[in-house]
Specification:
Helix content: 10-25%
Largest sheet: 9 strands, mixed
Strand content: 35-45%
CATH superfamily: Nucleoside Triphosphate Pyrophosphohydrolase
CATH architecture: Alpha-Beta Complex
Shape: globular
CATH topology: Nucleoside Triphosphate Pyrophosphohydrolase
Order of helices and strands: EEHEEEEHEEHEH
CATH class: Alpha Beta
Length: 159
């Protein structure tokens, strides 16, 4: 196990597998996540509903590939068109929540992108989904009393 949150959600492992094989061998992949590196720091978004800082992403929609889902989520949450780098597949143990009433294993596609510091201002101007992601900030600038999703913090270490 690589990380655990207060809720009991666990990041069990990061599976090194190519993107095409991941989609074939671990279907369904329930979430696509994007680690955004800016300089030597990582960009985080404050989730309005969860009240926690996290990396970016979301669930694939009907008929979308995991890459198409990630590109769409980057456009919605960051306002940018990008071709993210495939990092691997995260294996999670998730506790009951609004998605399911049981403990379950899930797999998440993990992508990464590096951007210059000039993108911070551009992202703030262009991002579309301001209802879910209230605000953005660099991980290193967040105060120690702000809640950062531990699984997401751990995922930044892989990029």
């Amino acid at each position: 196990m690589l990380a655990i949150e207060q809720s009991g959600n666990k990041l069990l492992e990061l599976i090194e597998i190519n993107e095409d094989d991941a989609a074939l061998q671990f279907s369904p992949i329930t979430v696509c996540l994007l680690v955004v590196k800016i300089g030597k720091d990582y960009l985080m978004g404050f989730n309005h509903w969860r009240k926690v800082w996290e990396i970016f992403g979301g669930c694939p929609e009907e008929g979308e590939t995991i890459r198409e889902a990630m590109v769409r989520e980057a456009k919605e949450e960051l306002g940018i068109e990008c071709t993210p780098e495939w990092l691997g597949l995260a294996h999670f143990e998730m506790q009951p929540d609004y998605f399911s009433s049981v403990v379950r294993e899930e797999y998440g596609a993990i992508f990464g992108i590096s951007l210059g510091e000039e993108y911070l201002e551009r992202i703030e101007e262009l991002r579309i989904d301001r209802e879910e992601i209230e605000r953005i900030a660099l991980l290193g600038k967040l105060s120690s009393n702000e809640e950062i999703r531990e699984l997401d913090r751990k995922l930044t270490e892989f990029y």
